[in-house]
Request: fold
Amino acid sequence: MPEIAMIDRESEKVENQIQKSDLISRDLSWLGFNERVLDQAKNENRSLVDRLKFLAITASNFDEFFMVRVGSLYNYLDYGKSRTDYSGLDEYTFKKKLFHEVRRFVEGQNAVFSELSDLMFQDAGFRIERDLSRLEASERKELKNYFKETVFPMLTPMAFDSYHTFPVLLNKILIFGVVTEDQSGNENSNKLSLVQIPKNLSRFYELRREDCAVFVPIESVIREYIHKLFRNVPIMSVSLFRITRNGDFTLEESEDIETNFLEELKSKLKSRKTGRVVRVETEEGADVWMLDLLKGKLEIDDDNIFTVSDAGLIDFTSLWQIVKHPEYRHLANPLREPVKSLSLPDDQDRDILELLKTKDVLVHSPYHSYEIFLDLLERACEDPKVLSIKMTIYRLADNSRVTAALLRALENGKHVSVLFEVKARFDEENNLREAKRLQNAGCFVIYGMSHLKTHTKLLLIVRKDSAKRITRYVHMASGNFNEDTAKLYTDLALMSTNEVYARDVAEFFNVITGHSDPSYYENLITAPRDMRNQLLDLIGVEIENAKNGKKAGVVIKLNSLQDKDVIAKLYEASNAGVQIRLIVRGICCLRPGREGLSENIKVRSIVGDYLEHSRIYYFHNGGSPKVYCGSADVMVRSFDRRLESLFLVLDDKVRAEMMCVLDYNLKDNVNAYQMLEDGAFRKIQVEEGEEEFNLHEQMYNLTKKELKTIKLF
Reply:
């Protein structure tokens, strides 16, 4: 009892320290975001398949969180470097707190899965069956043949004993630890063999019945017949587990981009496969002797081991196999057909290259069709008048039409320059492959910058209309040139022939590809040059206006808010009387609504059918609003370690539409969560007599008439 009391006091002390801080922990805030995603899986108004999808998303989010954020924490722990979190906790105390919260979240995931498992058959006509004894004789025979003919030849038991070194265990795959009896005569001496389940085996084997489908996990099949890998050897235990390795690494600056830099990157990618283990997920009842051995060999402790209950499932990302199943895809929330951009004329049938000479066009995906951008790019690649194309690429779709169009442009003799960001996390190998394809075809390829990650989304097309007239087309966006994610991510892209934009974008490309260092841009705010300072100045204008009795306000929509300097400036603005509304999808390290600190700041998060990815910065500016859009969040990495850009919106109608996006985000009462002073989020409920306002539905209904009346303050 005294020991429990001591733990309670220590826990209370940690909580007091967290609440005492004026900043919220980045990692604890991220866990709160994943809770909001899990909340979608709990939503009984969603279909079963939709709920399974959100559960799978929480799992893939978690994998990346452990590889990157927990991996980063272990970079401090392993090398004895001190670190103080925004919450004021040192690295060891914070690790304990973080893992406690993670464990609580995992319990929530398993509870949701257990509930959904009970609903599977009655709601969707399928079920997951792990107990092979419940199957029909013919089905068991089918599984036995599947194991014998397909699975068995692929399995490789790897022994660990005095004659065999400990094998390399691969990241994020299922592994069986098989403890066998040592028959050499030594007492109390067991042996361990490890059987890794190949990734190219489907997680579920599908059995068809007249009334339903039965999905049998691959581990259940292997467990049933694993004795065939250990002939005439007594098996003491069979335990399933999965490891997650540190995937966080920092590329060092390199003098030679084309050789040393790329070779270093390839080396780092290989090391990711064998980085230190930060998490082990095990099934309930896993062999204790095996776990003790793993702890020693992998240099982990009990904090790193997460037990999944019998009702749960190791690796919920495997649920994508069911979610994407052709037979059940219709049960997920169906995607709506996009509507026409409000920037396009009602009778739009003109060549996009000609239309853009007369007006700017704003594309708000997924509400507007991404075909508009693809049409622009593909026409430019075919148009004989187009001389050159320059663009930055961060993430591409599978079978990308962007790459195909650029290859066609090269065939047509155009100059093509592409910066491929080969440090785009977890897309490095794909980007290297696509970059090599273009380079081999004659494209001028830049493989990023050694010490900066290029995150800006820019396109510049140069077209010679006549002997004396050159038209430059620009495309500036918040999202990637990726036609797949454009169906699910909300992003904004501006296409224009405005020469003010063209000059800025051309200058920025010279920075990216050469050694240019322009003294100023007319309408771009760029990082790492001066983005932080310019945003601080814009907030400063609102502070001065408020002090002078003028109306003042800031509305910012973004993915993450973490930079201390900007947060401090927002606190200063709040105390000056500036009304601040923040729409932050994920990480928010600012603490809203604290007396004497942030009473005029409100924070909300939108989590629903679409992933909110667009960034918009609105400053009231004494009644002449300034609106910026682009690729940058308010993060230290965005300001100091990335090439980023935000563009000032010049066109009145485009500005009004972006303000309407902010207004709709603030009105949403279906997908919205309000951030509380203690850092927690509360789901916003529709009040009695109030109509539902679902941002992800209402954006499809936006009309030009509404743009004329939009007003944020």
